[in-house]
Amino acid sequence: MDAAAVIETENLTKLYGHQTAVDRLTLTVGEGEIFGFLGPNGAGKTTTLLMLLGLTEPTAGRVRVMGLDPARDPIRVKSRVGYLQENMGFYADLDARQMLRFVAELNGIAGRQAEERIAAALEAVGLAEEGRKKIAAFSRGMRQRLGIAELLIKDARLAFLDEPTLGLDPDATVRIMEMIMGLARERGMTIVLSSHQLNQVQKICDRVGIMIKGRMVAQGPMDQLAREKFGVGPEEFSLEEVYMKYFLEA
Fold it and tell me: Biggest alpha carbon distance in the chain?
């Protein structure tokens, strides 16, 4: 396995009884890459994520996250990995600074270093003026930006983003997408983006993987996938059309 890869799996498999949730997944994601992880509900994406985070053990195969085995070293993996969920679980009675201070403490960051990181993170996500505001009063877009601030506090090298723009208005969506690109392009963070908003995935992802019924049926740059299915580049076909072609043939 490639020691330089941030994520690498080889024939990764997960069974629940006689049901195969993930079927021999082989995947490599490089440093600083934005990888679009696509598939319908029940395709195996969440189970894959749980194995990558060390929250469930594989039935077979191998997995490495930043060179570590998540099943054997889950604490070290979690200390380097961020996870922005569809519905972030914040303590609504805290303000933004208090929440980020709590995140810092959980990651062993204290004192002046913590306060400097909190100030820089709030500034980076456009919440510097909202630091003393209770999270209960935050809009969904503000909560998503606060989630990105958490990634910056812990200096995550890898982040899993699950539907980060779902339910946001167009302006908030653009802002979140720009922040995601900045995490990768300016900070070198590796991003795994799971979303049903395929037009957004097409705009920012370096590569995409399509998972259906537990199997990764395709992975690669958009132009490669378009040529495999239609014989032409992405100028003629959208990611949605390419995705549906793989889905219908799976």
Answer: 57
| Of residues 88, 38, 46, 87, the one with CA closest to residue 199 | 38
Q: Could you give the CA distance from residue 30 to residue 35 in angstroms, rounded to a whole number? A: 9
pLDDT attached to residue 228: 84
CB 145 within 8 A of CB 90: no
- Summarised one tens digit per residue, pLDDT across range 202-212 is 999 999 999 99
The count of residues in the chain is 250
Distance CA 181, CA 134 (A): 28
Mean residue pLDDT of the chain comes to: 91
- Domains annotated on the chain, with CATH: 7-249 (3.40.50.300)
Q: What is the pLDDT of residues 79-112, one digit of tens each?
A: 899 998 877 778 999 999 999 999 999 999 999 9
Distance CA 157, CA 83 (A): 11
Which of helix, strand or coil describes residue 163?
A: coil
Percent helix, percent strand, percent coil in the chain, to nearest 5: 40, 25, 35
Q: Whose structure tokens read 């996250």?
A: 65
pLDDT single digits (tens) 210-250: 999 999 999 999 888 888 887 766 667 788 988 998 888 87
Strands (E), the chain: 7-16, 19-29, 34-38, 60-65, 81-84, 158-162, 190-194, 207-212, 215-220
